[in-house]
Amino acid sequence: MTAGTAGTVEAGAGGTEDTRTRLLATALRLFTEHGVEGTSLQMIADALGVTKAAVYYHFKAKSEIAEAVAEPALRELDVVIDEAAAKRRHGAQVDHLLAGFVDVVVRHRRLLALFSSDPGIARAVEASLHGEQDLESRLMGILLGPDPDAGDVVTAHVALAGIGLAGGAPAMTELDDDTLRRHLLEVGRRLLRRPRPPRLA
Amino acid sequence: MTAGTAGTVEAGAGGTEDTRTRLLATALRLFTEHGVEGTSLQMIADALGVTKAAVYYHFKAKSEIAEAVAEPALRELDVVIDEAAAKRRHGAQVDHLLAGFVDVVVRHRRLLALFSSDPGIARAVEASLHGEQDLESRLMGILLGPDPDAGDVVTAHVALAGIGLAGGAPAMTELDDDTLRRHLLEVGRRLLRRPRPPRLA
DNA sequence: GTCTATACCGCGATAGAC
DNA sequence: GTCTATCGCGGTATAGAC
């Protein structure tokens, strides 16, 4: 995105990945190890063998790094929401959204652990979440039907918050992806009263 | 606690509340307005008309202020857990715990919004949560029966995280305490499969 | 026992040279 | 694209006034 002058860069010559990419990978690693707060620009710079100022050339602020790290997961969520919105029947929308949401949560659960305990990421995510696309409104809009009562709203919030947070919880690290996904899905269905989808897609 | 030499101090003379108490009240207000991270010791000191060092006299570190702010809620939770543990039947334990937890969440929901989005408080709470008393283990111990399977563990986590987070969510601020409590309780029951307690206590 | 003055160092961020 | 230098502010720490 914002491609511009790129062109020949992609999969360029020999070894050297461009700094921005290396930077993001390094930042993600350090973030998951020490949290966003606990990771200083100095640590990132040192790990890359450059100075803080060099890091600042690629990102205007630390929060931008956090946003960039969170972006892939948010983009996937965006796709899921679009797919869900495209379904005709409301029940099918909810089913697809739930399954897709759980899937994104499970596949990005290490990131999730960060999201939920670090305001650095949390704020970055919220910015994107309520930004241009406002993922949260769209999510809730699908989950809640045409005219939801207070109980529906509470239920939807508990479901999303619970699944998201539980997915990233330390106690879940022992479970393999598939097991976790199955259980989260089941819990979500019970919450949202969608007892069980038809056996074949 | 750690009373010691006190004695005559309690409910002392005229106007001046002791600084420590004013400090905590001020800190709580600023924390809820700007978050823990967003509140500097300088801001607290200014609001009280003292210097940073004075604040530092009462609390060795910023994290201690956060802990002190969170303490009342955690103590209430502690009581609820004890009460629940004292019940004879497991079903009654879960019912009491759920109702008590929801109640604490609702009454401290402003604080909750902080807990869940600010690692300052989050860490303080975790310290207490896993400290001496290890509230979390005891909570989970009651919620999960004798030998829980993976599904039970996931469910319990979703329930606690979901109720806690949803209770503090901005979207819930419009609901009055009683309505919120009723809906959270109902959602919790559905999750934990405790359909409905007997009509009279 | 309560507070002020002052200082330290690491942090995120900026400006400008190469 | 990277570096050196520097800034202001944050939490922390100590010495000492009252």
UniProtKB/TrEMBL annotation, chains A, B:
<dbReference type="InterPro" id="IPR009057">
    <property type="entry name" value="Homeodomain-like_sf"/>
</dbReference>
<dbReference type="InterPro" id="IPR050109">
    <property type="entry name" value="HTH-type_TetR-like_transc_reg"/>
</dbReference>
<dbReference type="InterPro" id="IPR023772">
    <property type="entry name" value="DNA-bd_HTH_TetR-type_CS"/>
</dbReference>
<dbReference type="GO" id="GO:0003700">
    <property type="term" value="F:DNA-binding transcription factor activity"/>
</dbReference>
<keyword id="KW-0238">DNA-binding</keyword>
<feature type="DNA-binding region" description="H-T-H motif">
    <location>
        <begin position="40"/>
        <end position="59"/>
    </location>
</feature>
<dbReference type="GO" id="GO:0000976">
    <property type="term" value="F:transcription cis-regulatory region binding"/>
</dbReference>
<protein>
    <submittedName>
        <fullName>TetR family transcriptional regulator</fullName>
    </submittedName>
</protein>
<dbReference type="Pfam" id="PF00440">
    <property type="entry name" value="TetR_N"/>
</dbReference>
<keyword id="KW-0804">Transcription</keyword>
<dbReference type="InterPro" id="IPR001647">
    <property type="entry name" value="HTH_TetR"/>
</dbReference>
<keyword id="KW-0805">Transcription regulation</keyword>
<feature type="domain" description="HTH tetR-type">
    <location>
        <begin position="17"/>
        <end position="77"/>
    </location>
</feature>
